Amino acid sequence: MEHRHLGQSGLMVSEVTYGNWLTHGELVDRDQAVACIRAALDAGVTTFDTADVYARGAAEELLGTALGGVRRSSLVIASKVCLPTGDGPNDRGLSRKHIMESCEASLRRLRTDYLDLYQAHRFDETTPLEETLVAFDDLVRQGKVLYLGVSEWTATQIESALTVIRELGLRSRIVSNQPQYNMLWRVIEPEVVPLCLREGIGQLAFQPLAQGVLTGKYRPGQEPPDGSRGKAGGRAPAFIGRVLGPRLLEQVQDLLPVAAECGLSAAQLAIAWVLRQPGVSSVVAGATRPEQVTENASASGRTIDEAVLKRVDEILGDLVDRDPAKTARMMAVKPDWARSASASG
Which of 102, 131, 169, 254 has its CA 20 to 30 A from that of 58? Predict the structure, then answer.
């Protein structure tokens, strides 16, 4: 496992970060989830990403348990705050109250005294940006958080935050952005990436496999395979349904020989592709089985050349979405290729 600086900060993160989004606490039983985390550790993964909203805290609890006994200073543990964690009016957003209370709850569930990285899970239009950033800065001053990041913010939102930080003279700064980013979904490239490169903010790219679609396991005209997210319960099928479509699945099959020529699996090609992009510090990948963790981690350090990048672009063609307006609407808007695929059955 190779490591990179998180943006222009001094923090080193593993090229592959282990994420426990829909898998832990919802789709995978406890023993299997712990086995996946242990497989990540065995593969040299040192960076683990979670959030308070994942399975209403159960994901953080499981991660804290599974990492018990591991030397804390050898790990980078990241969590997030903003999305609803309860039914009360203050159980969401980026108010000082919610940030402070959520941080304490995350620390308790994760069984740690501090978070290496604390991220604003979304932008909060209802709270003054100054209030949010001062609260984050106070957590850094208190030693409960070491570094700050954001997730799925637009370039304008990130730039506004940087301006406030400078105007208020806050000590802490934003070192990372966590966007959805993969071969198909490239909406951060026109605006977010150039700003982050200029400001020294690294990308922690999640969904590098497009919810498993880029592994090639979903085949045209066939039911999702048993054990896949597309066949699972909970929220996973709804997310997978956004990206499944006959034309897309046919094009993904054409990526398989490209991966084979590189000596990679389709999943490894997808991860290596993201790691090849400017400004990417790490790829956040989850898994439902330990062998998937090992396969994903093995993409670290694998290089692909310009000719391969060109072939990927030629194969996917107009299925690639680069509309920057969709950065802030990722959860609500289908990519064009998913919408057209759904319309065609």
Answer: 131
Contact partners, residue 284, CB within 8 Å, separation at least 6: 17, 18, 19, 49, 178, 204, 205, 206, 207, 208
pLDDT tens sequence across 175-205: 999 999 999 999 999 999 999 999 999 999 9
List, in order of start, the domains of the chain with CATH numbers. Answer: 3-215+274-303 (3.20.20.100)
CA distance 317 to 329: 23
Question: Contact, 53 vs 62, CB < 8 A?
Answer: no
- Average of per-residue pLDDT across 107-131: 97
Q: Structure pTM?
A: 0.89
Phi, psi torsion values for 192, nearest 5 degrees: -65, -50
**CA 187 vs CA 81, 193, 251, 309, 325: distances in Å:** 23, 9, 20, 17, 8
Residue located via tokens 């996917």: 316
What residues pair up with 28 in beta bridges, in sequence order?
A: 24
How confident is the model over 322-340, as a mean pLDDT? Answer: 60
Q: What is the pLDDT of residues 60-71, one digit of tens each?
A: 999 999 999 999
Report the distance separating Cα 249 and Cα 345, nearest Å: 13
CA distance 27 to 23: 5
**From the centroid of its chain, how far is CA 219?**
25
